[in-house]
Amino acid sequence: MSRRWTARLALGAGTAALLVLVISAGFGSVVLVGVGVGGLALTVAGVWWMLTHTGWIRVLAVLLVVAAPLTVLVLYAIADLLWVVLVSLGLWALAVSAGRAALVEDTSPGMPERSVNRAEHPFLIMNPRSGGGKVEKFQLVERARALGAEVVVLDPAHRQDVAELAHRAVRRGADLLGVAGGDGTQALVAGVAAEHDVPFMVISAGTRNHFAMDLGLDRQDPSTCLEALTDGVELRIDLGYLHAGRSADPSAGRVFVNNASFGVYAAVVQSPAYRDDKARTILEMLPDLLTHQSGARLSVRTGALTLDAPQAVLVSNNPYRPGDSAGLGRRERLDSGDLGVLGVEVGSAAQATQLLLRGRQGRGLTAVTAREVVVDADAREIPVGVDGEALLLPTPVRCRLAAGALRVRVPRRRPGVPHSAPPMDWHRVRRLALTMGRVAAGRDTV
Q1: DSSP string, 29-82
Q2: In this predicted model, what pLDDT tens digit does every residue of 348-357 receive, in sequence order?
């Protein structure tokens, strides 16, 4: 289906959703919407109170979270309008989904790549525990060695300095470095590759493989990443760096390939109890952290913008796509030359509700891009989560981006990074749906 017809489907489904409400409920449709919005607001408020309080207030908040949506459903059922609401919501969901799909650009350019010669002395580091044992499951060691790579398998019983292993390999003549492991290990070796200007290869053998995902690699079968050894192309991407402390060496720094998180999340994962009981630790620590009763008070500076006392800050190597404020999804590119900065500051249940309903337009969320970000605090050290690794760093922490610092070797044939659906924009959808003729075939500028 073309983008134009998908946009028309969105408009049709959205109109049908409204008509179902109006025709079936008449003036009561306004009441229906009001009851639904009120129930949602009470539910969000209950979640906020549950996270920021303990004791009997938390118990009451849990009851509110359960009772509010159930009450709304009961009221709809008593009025014999539950089916109307469900049909209308289904049509509205279809409209939003089709509208976002229609706004996806068919010809958005990917990251430029260039053909390269095969590496003569590739050196790979593999973590046998990463991803629940993917190295062994997919026989990555044997396959890599069969393709001429030198492979070092990390010993789970002894901590090894992967950066030093990579430095030694380069001194011995390695002309490609690669890692089969988590993103934290990927970042450490990527920093060495950038320092020596040798290509870096990612093997998606970690648990989440966010870095591999944004490079368009196959996350289901990491053995396909080894094709980069024989038939690869090269990308030039950016790297993020952290410089901690007032006397930090500007030429050094901790590399991050995905993101660095500050505030609530970073503080929780630092707790010794977090690994043993994640849910209980989060519920115990969140009330004080969210209300600034414990933890460092952060200050974020980037250009002319200053954030005072945000509860959470995420600085990413290139911004995450719109609509993914949690930083859990994809980045459109890794070569934009900009850091992504997301700051969250919520002080009340009302602000939490507004943030949920309005997304990036909500007052509690700041989303910008920058070349450099400074995170300071009223403490000498702050917890920082760097590509999933929990660190404690001296303040201030300066985040910067090194544009085009890393050469990445990827297979010529790979799944690629799919086009992501942008946030819903009814104005653009309407323009696209009503555009006729050759302009709608792809040459319009909606």
Answers
A1: HHHHHHHHHHHHHHHHHHHHHHHH--HHHHHHHHHHHHHHHHHHHHHHHHTT-H
A2: 777 676 666 6
